# Entry
Amino acid sequence: MDQRKNDHTQSLNMSSDQKNILHQLSTVAGSILLLATVLFFPSCAPNKPEEIKELTNREELPRITYRDLHSTITDSGKIRYRFTTPLMQQFDQREEAAIEFPQGLHLYVYNNLEEIDAQIKCKQATYHQTKDLWELRKDVEAINLDGEVINTELMYWDMSAKTLYSDQFIKISTETEIITGTGFESDERMENYKIKNISGILQVEEPPASTASEPVEP
# Structure
């Protein structure tokens, strides 16, 4: 009977030891889990303000930059358009892809005989790629084959529709008159144009001075 009592006591002692071991293991496991949690959460934390700013600024970094660029656009093997610019920057990471011309642009429009029909100059421009639309800004000056000069601060050129238009103040100078108004529409050769709201017509005796160069090969 004493032997059974000893065995029972030993059994109780072993159970107590096992409990201590399990407790220690549980404590160690809890520490490991806590450490893992501490290490894990920083990797899932929100971006810091400077990191968000850096990601945002990437949209304003050009993927490609060209300087003193002369480019030609052809269709069916014929020259349709040509442009020159001191600086061109292509932005592909923006929500709307665009090509910027922050230092100005000089555009030439050609006819089927590859002769210059019209030209446009401006101090700033943006080409919206998805819309196939040019946005011409600041001291925009266009001249057609007849030497008529169009001045405005903002003009859009829809290459798909082959039209020019503006909702800004416009001035058209011809050999005989100067017409001013607001709103303008024209074909891209500027042969057929109209001012939506004419504000004045001034008759002139001499041809108006033009800052645009004559239509010559760039």
Q: What stands out?
A: Residues 1 and 12 are 17 Å apart (CA to CA).
